[in-house]
Each structure stands twice: as C-alpha cells, then as structure tokens.
Amino acid sequence: MSLATMRLFRPIALLAALAFAVPLSAAAADLPQPSGKVMLTISGKIEHTNVDGTAQFDLDMLKAMHPITVKTSTIWTDGTQTFTGVRLHDLMEAVGADADTLDATAINDYAVQIPSDDWGEDGAIVAYEQNGKPMSVRDKGPLWVIYPFDQDKKFQTEVTYSRSIWQLDRIIVGK
C-alpha cells in the first residue's frame, strides 16, 4: 500500500475506532460481577448494573469501595461502637442513582424510605463490620445502615432511627 493510500485510510480508521470505542466505554462503566455470596441488590433508577439490570454486591465488592469507619453510640447497643462500611453516598454514585429517595428493605421485609439528604457525604453508611467483626443476622447484620449519631444532633431523631435499617439486603432507587 502506498503512503498516499495509507494517508487516505487513516481518517477512516480513526472514525471506525471511535465508533467502537463509545460502546466499549459505556460498558466499562458497568460494575464487576460478584464472585461471592450476594449481600446487597440495588435496582430501580440506576445507570450502572452487573446482573440482569440490577447492581449486585458481594462483601469483597463493598470492602473495595473506600471503606469508612464511624464511631458512634446507638439506641440499640451499649456504649460507643465502631462500624466499618461504605458511605451510602459512594454506593449511590457507584450505581449512578438518579432519584430523591431510596426504598431500603431488610431480610424480614421491613422497609424504610431514605431521602437523598441522608446519603450525602456526611450521612449514613452501609456497615458490614461492627467493632472489627462481620455482623451476623442475629447481630443486625450482615449489613446495617448506620448514621453518625454522635456527630450531629440532626441524626438523633425518631425518624432517623427508623431509617437505620439492619439486615439490609435490597435497595430500590426511586420508583
């Protein structure tokens, strides 16, 4: 192939590469597949999925998402506890949540609505450890929505306590 012919095809090759790159970048935004037991399934108005239009997370996936530790007392425990988990804010960013509320549901079907104000950067976390240990179902686990109750009086209300759902296993973003 001559140099003139190669110069002619270069723009065509570039356009072809760009045409294929757009779908690939969109797919790259999807989440990895869970390899362990699924602990949390998020559905609804989300952009990033990994299993049949939902975002499913195993423990390793949650632990890989910028873990945060919150020390706080709760109305259900004695003394100050240390909770480790992922900010609800980071979780909603990871799935590309687009709504003003979350419907969070526990293993026993207890359900609460959590407004977007509660999943700001200083708000609730989805805890997977309490005092450095995984939480069993018997001990309000394996996932518990925890607020930094001691950090701000605005979290010390009956409404906020009711949103601190334990045994969390699914979230629907918007409706």
TrEMBL record:
InterPro entries: OxRdtase_Mopterin-bd_dom, OxRdtase_Mopterin-bd_sf. Residues 76-148 form the Oxidoreductase molybdopterin-binding domain. Residues 1-28 form the signal peptide. It comes from the Bacteria. The keyword Signal applies. Pfam families: Oxidored_molyb (PF00174). The keyword Phosphoprotein does not apply. Keywords: Signal. This is Molybdopterin-dependent oxidoreductase. It comes from Pseudooceanicola albus.
